[in-house]
Amino acid sequence: MYRQLGVIGCGLIGGSFALALKHAGLAQRVVGYSRTAATTALALRLGVIDEVASSAAAAAAACDIVLIAVPVAATEATLKEIRASLEPGVLLMDAGSTKRDVVDAARRALRERIDCFVPAHPIAGKESSGVEHAEASLYVGHRVILTPLPQTDPALLKRASSVWQSIGAEVRLMSAEQHDAAFAAVSHLPHLLAFAYFKSVAGQPAGDEFLALAGPGFRDFTRIAASDPAVWRDILGSNREEVLKQSQHFRAALESFETAIRSGQGEALEALIRGASEGRADWRMGKLPDA
Amino acid sequence: MYRQLGVIGCGLIGGSFALALKHAGLAQRVVGYSRTAATTALALRLGVIDEVASSAAAAAAACDIVLIAVPVAATEATLKEIRASLEPGVLLMDAGSTKRDVVDAARRALRERIDCFVPAHPIAGKESSGVEHAEASLYVGHRVILTPLPQTDPALLKRASSVWQSIGAEVRLMSAEQHDAAFAAVSHLPHLLAFAYFKSVAGQPAGDEFLALAGPGFRDFTRIAASDPAVWRDILGSNREEVLKQSQHFRAALESFETAIRSGQGEALEALIRGASEGRADWRMGKLPDA
Questions:
Q1: d(CA B236, CA B227)
Q2: Which of A2, A180, B9, B285 could disulfide-pair with A65, CB 3.0 to 4.6 Å?
Q3: CB-based contact A185 B204, cutoff 8 Å
Q4: Cβ contacts (< 8 Å) between B289 and chain A: which residues?
Q5: What gap in Å lies between CA A131 and CA A117, rounded to an integer?
Q6: CB contact under 8 A, A213 and B252
Q7: What is the pLDDT of residues A252-270, one digit of tens each?
Q8: Residue whose C-alpha is closest to residue A64's, from A15, A21, A109
Q9: What DSSP line would sit under A57-78, residue for residue?
Q10: Which stretches of chain B drop beneath a pLDDT of 70?
């Protein structure tokens, strides 16, 4: 049981974490801060937080657990602002979708207090953002990746795993480098491809006519192209090396398909498609290689 | 009311057309042929067809309406086989996903009988193929594109429109060229990208670990990568010019995103993403540009 949870960034992710801890009986009290006053006012009215803090530093003060759930690019400034307010022994986590840049920012911003920081990436979300969509069950059955630093206090890492498990999440540990490489491949690149694909069709003279003929395959393939521009600017920008590396892998694969198409090699083309088709048919969300 | 419908290729598409015409009281009798005897046996048992024909020519004989629902690459051979059996005044349609190659094949195969042919592409399907998944309502609310030739008998074109409308479909007319350009953009290219993307991730040394971390965005983006290899070999091969043209458009768009990422131009990147994101959020399936 935590005495006081501080949530900095009371949106869908931060708000759901607060509700989940309350419902699980893990937090006595929640103090929240958001850059926009209307957000914390709504969070208070919805019972997501118990008190509005006047600043990030005030939200972090006197807490034994703090979650930073702000856009990735705002992480460093937030950490700098709260460093002097952190209690000894506090468990400090973020919720960013990229981890190398967060770890680098934390080293610069937290300095000797780096031991209290457990970088976290909950793989959960909804089509709709905002505290009004927060729910206590958001993390149930979802993965949370923790990417501890060598300096991270092992007792705090254990408490971090325990708190996510207590609200229904499945915890995996990996390095920030492994995390960023993996998510560049399975999340960041698909977003980039979906953005670029939608733009390439819509930008053609007959684009509107084409789009009017698109069906269910197109709908699913481009769903992630509707994602939030500011969030994805930050993610693609901060994980750029891994994203560009994955894009190169993709271009090479596309090239092999195009070569088979261009040269009329039906058998080679079918073999390429079959590899993808059978692999995808066999894939299940959350299926581990060793499972 | 048609006296006899001949269905060549009794799979999901052909079988559903037969069921729909029966349910609508539009066909007195259905004769079916498939390359695999087990398929027609099952179609007969399920009441999809009333009689099994011993050949494509036998299925087409004595019919006043014929639907060819075979893989695109088998269209020409099928048309050649049935030409001599076609009754005067018969309405002959196909159901292929590409149209220029079908029109070319029909010119070569049907010669002076080309006037009876109305090329059709019903934009409907399901995850699962095969006559056991056929249903009378498959075409309800879906689009059917007809791409008549200059030689197509106008009376037959009218009857073709009418029969599809009677089973719940919405008919659009366009040229085979317009059809193939549009579907290269909104269907064929997304399939190619999904195949290539899945292959590029799965083919990496850490591919299995990456795939184990993939979530709902990945699931939807890659759903079409599980499509049938033989069907898509034919589609990508027969519409290769338009597909490769669309792929070039896509590569140019991807390049512009990558340039913004590589050079750290956050504002330019956000503007590019915003264009795609707002466009996709505004898109609705079946929304016409003039609607």
A1: 12
A2: A2
A3: yes
A4: 208-209, 211-212
A5: 24
A6: no
A7: 999 999 999 999 999 999 9
A8: A21
A9: HHHHTT-SEEEE-S-GGGHHHH
A10: 126-127, 287-291
Residue A247 to residue B254, Cβ atoms within 8 A: yes
For residue B279, what are its two tokens? 């466009």
Dihedral, B242, B243, B248, B252 alpha carbons, nearest 10: 110
* DSSP 8-state secondary structure symbol assigned to residue A172: E
Listed in sequence order, the DSSP H helices in chain B are 12-23, 37-45, 56-60, 75-82, 100-110, 154-166, 176-183, 189-202, 207-212, 216-221, 229-238, 240-262, 266-282
Contact list in A for residue B220 (CB cut-off 8 A) is 220-221, 223-224
Phi–psi pair at A54, nearest 5 degrees? -85, -10
E strands of A80-189, at which residues? 91-94, 117-118, 120-122, 143-146, 170-173
CB of B55 within 8 A of CB of B78? no
Q: Which residue of B has its CA nearest to A255?
A: B196
Three-state SS sequence of B148-214: CCCCCCHHHHHHHHHHHHHCCCEEEECCHHHHHHHHHHHHHHHHHHHHHHHHHHHCCCCHHHHHHCC
| A167, A172, A173, A176: CA torsion to nearest 10 | -100
CA gap A71, A105 in Å, rounded: 13
Q: Which of A5-14, A187-196, A227-236 has the lowest mean pLDDT?
A: A227-236
Tokens of A20: 């989940």
Distance CA B93, CA B149 (A): 12
- Name the residue type at position B137: S
Q: How many C-beta neighbours within 10 Å does residue A267 have?
A: 9
- Cβ within 8 Å of residue A205, ≥6 positions away: none
Chain B contact probe: residue of A123, A243, A254, A263 with most B CBs at under 10 A: A254
Give the integer Cα–Cα distance in Å for B227 and B191: 8
